Amino acid sequence: MLQAGNMMPQVNCLTQFFKQPGAFLVLLGFAINCSGQTTDYKVHANIIYRFTKYIQWPENKQSGDFVIGIIGDSPLYEELSALTANKSVGDQRIIVKRLSESAASYSCQMLFISEEESRTLKRIAALTADRPVLLITEENGLAKKGACINFIIVDDRLKLDINKNNVLSRNLDIASDLLKLATIITNDNVIANSPKL
Question: Going from the N-terminus, what domains does the chain have, and what CATH number goes with each?
């Protein structure tokens, strides 16, 4: 398993929590209503960016640009683009791209499927099944249906469901620190850390 590395502070309503290594561990414990919105995509963007510190891609995916694809018309595109401008994963420049739900293939390291496009998950999961693409979704139950990581809201707090089998089957390695923060989902049931954050 990977160990979490040092993280850089970000300028937003959560700045004070990113001043120390391991702040990501605290992030999930805070209410997502940081700026008065129902879903604060600044928080989603920060967490997705932090996944790059907790997920290891195969060596053949560690060159060229590090592409994060967004499917659907989500405010996450703007938030993630602003957050990752001039940032990199190792030597790879981070690029955020809007992608079509009906594309024939997906050339990216991470792929976020918005709630409005969640009906396409089964097709996209099958299309990318043999590739190291971290599938991220935001609708209850999708970690059992092909997603690797699924954002859910519980009691006005952002939580994660992680299907470790889906992650590992894509030749990705995931840090134990990240697994400890999530409810672990299998295709049959919940194994659950169900962290109290």
Answer: 15-184 (3.40.50)
